[in-house]
Amino acid sequence: xxxTFEGVEGCGKSTVIELIFSRLxxxxxxxxxxxEPGGVKIAEEIRNIILDKENTSLDDRTEALLFAASRRQHxxxxxxxxxxENKIVLCDRFLDSSLAYQGGGKHLGVDEVLNINLFATExxxxxxxxxxxxxxxxxxxxxxxNKNREVNRxxxxxxxxxxxxxxxxLELSKKYNERYVVIDASKTLDEVVENVYSIIKKRLDxxx
Length: 208
Prior knowledge:
This protein is 57% helix and 13% strand. The protein contains 8 helices and 5 strands. The protein has helices at residues 13-26, 41-51, 60-84, 95-105, 110-121, 136-145, 159-175, 189-206, and strands spanning 2-7, 31-35, 88-92, 128-133, 180-184. It has a 5-stranded parallel β-sheet with strand order 2-3-1-4-5, sandwiched between helices. Helix 1 (13-26) packs across helix 8 (189-206) and helix 3 crosses helix 5.
């Protein structure tokens, strides 16, 4: 089962995915945790190019293509082999991030970005996508409070950009409502973790 976690910056998904992963691992589920862009050596190297604050001249279409290239390599080396072995794959971001950030936020067009990603992924879609929905103002305030978090190139975008990203995610959740579950990420960490855990458990129990 391929489960992806999505949302704007500071929504808490990276913290929650770690907690869910260790909980399911303790329950002896065959599970791996990975992230995008990255997850494997070549994809991590592409991530460094995308997120480097010095790369201010990076063109928006180049950025979208780099994300798709990184995604392809990650699938080939890590995600597809794990799914073949009947493992559960928890992934911090996937294709929907490209649709929301580059398609929506950067105005490249959701369909245009979807097309290059369908080529890159050979139409691989998650079985379940959990969208951590939060007002970007709250998310960015959380990031500013967390001094340990790396600040990358995408953190330097405007609030208007993040509002567009959030709205694009919400539109995607309606379009792909069979695989999307939207949760309120402004709640306490414990509430969010319990909520996500019960959603995933329900899906996993449904497989048996």
